[in-house]
Amino acid sequence: MPQTEIRPEIVALLCDADFKHFRETGTWSHRDGRPCGKEERDLIFQATRADLEELKGQHSRYLEYVQTHQEAPEAIQRFLAPFMEQLEEKNLGDAHALMTDEERTEFNRLLGLMIEPARPFTPYVF
What we know:
Blueprint: H1 8-16, E1 17-22, E2 27-30, H2 38-45, H3 49-85, H4 92-98, H5 101-115
Antiparallel strand pairs: 1-2
């Protein structure tokens, strides 16, 4: 059986679909509430196993991202603990000065996760 190619337009549509059936419209909708049109529904029904596997992979990566985002406050505390232990006067500026460039990069990544709101699930981002 030939390898089926992933079709990005179908995967993007699957990522944006809310598959809860709405009686009012008689169809599914996009995540923003717009009903799916007939052409979109037809396209969704053409999804192959490869398209669905790609959707599954993207969604799994997104769930990992959300978990990392939610765990960031505790992760930054664990990350900073060894630096704070080295200081008599505990402040972030002094802890930051003790870090290597690689450690500062990790600190900035964790801090960014804490400051920025979690991004919504979007195709081909995660």
